[in-house]
Design brief:
The structure is a single chain. This protein is α/β, with parallel strands linked by helices. The chain folds into two domains: 134 residues, Rossmann fold; 177 residues, NAD(P)-binding Rossmann-like Domain (Rossmann fold, 3-Layer(aba) Sandwich). It contains twelve helices and eleven strands. Strand 6, helix 7 and strand 7 form a beta-alpha-beta unit.
Amino acid sequence: MPTTRPRALVTSPLRGPGFDLLRELLDIVYEPWIDQTPLRIYNADQLAARAEAEGATVLIVETDRCAGPVFDLPLLAVASTRGDPNNVDLAAATAAGVPVLSAAGRNADAVAELTVGLILAATRGLVDADRDVRQGEIYRDGTIPYQRFRAWQLAGRTAGLVGLGAVGRATRWRLEGLGMRVVAADPYAPEATHSLDGLLEVADVVSLHAPVTPETTGMIGAAQFAAMKPGVVFCNPARAQLHDTDALVEALRSGQVAAAALDHFAGEHLDADHPLTTLPNVVLSPHIGGATYDTEVNQTTLVAEGLCRLLAGATPGNCINPEVLAGRAD
């Protein structure tokens, strides 16, 4: 271990025992972006200037952009508390010889839990039922709730997971616990049971858990919605870029898709007059899948353990460019 503690600029929210370990390892300047008013996200120039002013040689970030001038600094490491550290220019970091750590799997349980909640809300009419009670309309239009909210149960149905990474696996056992048969499509997961086409043919619920890549962008479009079972439930707690929203709207209007639940929109925004907001068979949430305190605990532990190994001269398992550490003894 170094004889003097490196100085770290921390703009990611941290929590739990891992934070104590980080304080032992590093001299910390702690200003989490999410606690600032207004919210603050540094661009590369701003982050570089702040890190230089603080004399920081370690950066722990979640949303700030690490690129360009950031890698002109004499950094020991950059830790992104994201599962996919897309806020870091990995090529630039590698060229500068700066190891980059990630927090893969930090929010797997959180997103899986929300996925179950979204599916239940979409299939059981929970949002509308709550509205009716609050508005004193339990017997809306002279009907009883049992009439308006009858639905098929999930038990005995087939769920198709598109993507079987950490979130997909965490979702799988939860849906199996509800009595569902779960199939999965993922060309990079040996456990996957189906091709995408095969999955769409058999799934009563289709849930997306894939990362956004050139291969997956727009992977669910008009043709894929048409290939699904009539009356399918569509859930996307991952990223809006994975599906064609216009095609989804048409599939909902036609009844091909019976209900949809979404936790993300392009640009982190959905216009109030967007067609999705007018459809009664849609549940919408504003990208809150990973919004748990446990996610912060998990990311802190992953980063702390990785930095502990790094500062001890070893290669952390969560280093995504380990080639910059070639020659170190593990």
